[in-house]
């Protein structure tokens, strides 16, 4: 071989090697996008499976143990996890101690945990414990539970709180399977977002397995003196003993919901669908932890009237848990789709009237939210820009209700039949992966709009503020009648009780929320005396009545005392935030603060964070 040939061969080889490298890098770069709310660099090294082994110590209020990860290393000498307010004791790579360091602390993101690994490292183990600053976990004393005998604990991971109880790559675009061993006091039962026990173990040790890949924000744990009751072969409820029968009865239609949901968008992918009803400080109506939705006890109204929240969390088994928003800026892909799907499940079970009422309530929420963001209209975009913000502060009902209305408008445009085919295909072909807004728009254009030969102002809906003028107008005959009832009462200063005889909770809520701006305390008293709203046992009705009482300065029938009782027991953020906001807007911050000072210690950190801002509270 002459020198020319040798050089040629050498150059070709170098060229080929560099090509392969570039190609490999390209693939890696394409796999995960830049994400502003996680320090993890999954393109360098990523976790694929977690084995969690922890002790739950109620005396010290500490969770401690190990998190062992299988990792996929793309040639890196380190891997970065997210951690916040955790004590990291030591770290091992394939069973041997390795170097690690915690970077600078950020108030919302926490710290990067950098762990030194070798190119061929397969597993890392982090030895750690939680602290009294761990935000995901709420430790409850017996007084804060229904049965008042034993302590209770639950976690809340979404949006970026899982890193406060497990060191982890806490980005929604990462997916892991997990196993866990959890040791708790033997009078208590532990349950997770995984395959769960149905009875207590003898020694307080529990083993869990989540065989499907989930994003880290869906890691969840609850520990308490709870019992299980089945609703069907694959659905059921957990709750404290004194409540479990009522909960089983309230949610007796869970199986029907799953059946209807499957008819719409394909097989339920998580085998079991259970709900645990937590103590009243749980900060959400519901949280869609896979296989085990976490729920507030305020849903137990006695007449199944608030079960749309269960339909909502079930719907997340497709939108969110199966097809997950890639970043929190794409949050509307989780929530907007879920509100739409929730509405369809409710229609399938209870008919169009109920669905239209829920749809119109969403529309009213949306209009109020848009009005509230007049000064910052970019907050009303579907696609958000939460960089530099705590995602939890940027998440509001726009994602839910504008997202819902966008999909409802599309459904009306192309027809339900085509829309359902499109959605079913969308969930099937993107199952167990993540979705960006941009990719969704591409899929929508290719698979629905072009095929149906229609044009649609998708960009305006997604990237502009407010509600586009082509929004579908939801109508409800029932609500028209409610409006008439309000007008009659205000005109005559008297109430015809008979008209309201068959009203559902939705009609009551609409009635109460739509009092005229200038309603007087005397008119409120006439209404209260007729319907005893200050003593309502339906949490949603009560909440909107309290809101109006604060707003319109109504103080009859001991309503102030009722409001205080409500705010010091219930921690559901949407409810309490509505009421504290009403105090703030009615120039009664001091009244709100006086209650908040007593209530604050009962709330979970996500509620505390919100209300501190609402009332300008400083410790
Ligand atoms: N996933 C949400 C709760 C959530 C949102 C937690 C953002 C953390 C950050 C859940 O599915 C939800 O939307 N719950 C609603 C009920 C629903 C019917 C609107 C709630 O809690 O009110
Ligand atoms: Zn939701």
From TrEMBL:
Occurrences of domain Peptidase M1 leukotriene A4 hydrolase/aminopeptidase C-terminal (ranges): 469-615
Main location: cytoplasm
Subcellular location: Cytoplasm
Cofactors, names only: Zn(2+)
SUPFAM superfamilies documented for this protein: ARM repeat (SSF48371), Leukotriene A4 hydrolase N-terminal domain (SSF63737), Metalloproteases ('zincins'), catalytic domain (SSF55486)
UniProt keyword annotations, A-Z: Aminopeptidase, Cytoplasm, Hydrolase, Metal-binding, Metalloprotease, Protease, Zinc
Pfam family, one: Peptidase_M1_N
Uppermost EC category: hydrolase
Sequence positions that bind Zn(2+): 312, 316, 335
InterPro entries: Aminopeptidase_N-like_N, Aminopeptidase_N-like_N_sf, ARM-type_fold, LTA4H_cat, M1_LTA-4_hydro/amino_C_sf, M1_LTA4H, Peptidase_M1, Peptidase_M1_C
Cofactor: binding details: Binds 1 zinc ion per subunit.
Entry-linked CDD domains: M1_LTA4H (cd09599)
Catalytic activity: Release of an N-terminal amino acid, Xaa-|-Yaa- from a peptide, amide or arylamide. Xaa is preferably Ala, but may be most amino acids including Pro (slow action). When a terminal hydrophobic residue is followed by a prolyl residue, the two may be released as an intact Xaa-Pro dipeptide
Residues the record marks as active site: 313 (proton acceptor), 400 (proton donor)
GO BP annotations, alphabetical order: proteolysis
Recorded GO MF terms: alanyl aminopeptidase activity; metallopeptidase activity; zinc ion binding
EC number: 3.4.11.2
Entry GO CC: cytoplasm
Family that this chain belongs to: Belongs to the peptidase M1 family.
PANTHER family in the record: LEUKOTRIENE A-4 HYDROLASE
Name under which the protein is recorded: Aminopeptidase N
């Amino acid at each position: 071989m002459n020198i020319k040939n040798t050089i040629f061969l050498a150059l070709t080889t170098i060229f080929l090697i560099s090509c392969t490298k570039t190609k490999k890098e390209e693939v890696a770069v394409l796999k995960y996008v830049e994400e502003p709310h996680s320090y993890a660099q999954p393109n360098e090294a990523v976790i694929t499976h977690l084995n969690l082994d922890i002790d739950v110590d109620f005396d010290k209020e500490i969770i401690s143990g190990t998190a062992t990860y299988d990792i996929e290393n793309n040639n890196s000498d380190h891997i970065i996890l997210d951690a916040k307010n955790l004590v990291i004791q030591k770290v091992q790579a394939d069973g041997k101690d390795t170097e690690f360091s915690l970077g600078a602390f950020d108030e919302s993101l926490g710290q990067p945990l950098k762990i030194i690994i070798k190119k061929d490292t397969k597993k890392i183990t982090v030895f750690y414990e939680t602290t009294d600053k761990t935000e995901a976990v709420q430790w409850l004393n017996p007084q804060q539970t229904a049965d008042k005998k034993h302590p209770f604990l639950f976690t809340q991971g979404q949006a970026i709180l899982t890193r406060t109880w497990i060191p982890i790559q806490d980005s929604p675009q990462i997916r892991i399977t997990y196993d866990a061993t959890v040791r708790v006091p033997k009078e208590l039962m532990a349950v997770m977002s995984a395959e769960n026990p149905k009875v207590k173990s003898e020694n307080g040790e529990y083993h869990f397995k989540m065989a499907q890949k989930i994003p880290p924000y869906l890691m969840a744990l609850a520990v308490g003196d709870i019992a299980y009751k089945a609703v069907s072969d694959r659905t059921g409820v957990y709750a404290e003993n004194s409540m479990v029968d009522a909960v089983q009865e309230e949610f007796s239609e869970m199986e029907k919901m799953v059946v209807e949901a499957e008819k719409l968008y394909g097989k339920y992918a998580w085998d079991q669908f259970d709900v645990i009803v937590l103590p009243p400080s749980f900060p959400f109506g519901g949280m869609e932890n896979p296989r085990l939705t976490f729920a507030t006890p305020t849903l137990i109204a006695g007449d199944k009237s608030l079960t749309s929240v269960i339909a909502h969390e079930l719907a997340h088994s497709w939108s969110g848990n199966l097809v997950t928003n890639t970043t929190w800026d794409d949050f509307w892909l989780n929530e907007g789709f879920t509100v739409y799907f929730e509405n369809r499940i409710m229609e399938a079970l209870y008919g169009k009237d109920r669905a239209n009422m829920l749809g119109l309530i969403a529309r009213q929420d949306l209009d109020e939210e848009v009005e509230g963001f007049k000064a910052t209209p970019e907050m009303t975009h579907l696609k958000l820009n939460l960089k530099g913000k705590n995602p939890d502060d940027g998440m509001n009902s726009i994602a839910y209700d504008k997202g819902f209305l966008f999909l409802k408008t599309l459904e009306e445009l192309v027809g339900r039949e085509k829309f359902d085919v499109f959605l079913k295909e969308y969930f099937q072909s993107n199952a167990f992966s993540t979705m960006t807004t941009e990719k969704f728009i591409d899929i929508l254009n290719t698979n629905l709009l072009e095929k149906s030969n229609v044009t649609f102002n998708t960009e305006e809906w997604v990237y502009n503020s407010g509600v586009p003028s082509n929004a579908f107008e939801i109508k409800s005959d029932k609500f028209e009648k409610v409006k008439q009832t309000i007008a009659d009462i205000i005109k005559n200063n008297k109430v015809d009780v008979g008209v309201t005889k068959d009203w559902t909770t939705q009609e009551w809520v609409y009635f109460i929320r739509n009092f005229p701006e200038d309603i007087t305390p005397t008119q409120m008293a006439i209404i209260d005396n007729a319907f005893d709203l200050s003593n309502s046992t339906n949490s949603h009705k009560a909440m909107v009545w309290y809101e109006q009482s604060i707003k319109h300065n109504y103080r009859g029938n001991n309503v102030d005392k009722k409001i205080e009782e409500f705010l010091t027991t219930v921690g559901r953020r949407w409810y309490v935030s509505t009421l504290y906001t009403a105090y703030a807007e009615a120039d009664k911050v001091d009244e709100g603060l006086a209650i908040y000072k007593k209530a604050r210690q009962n709330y979970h950190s996500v509620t505390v964070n919100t209300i501190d801002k609402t009332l300008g509270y400083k410790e």
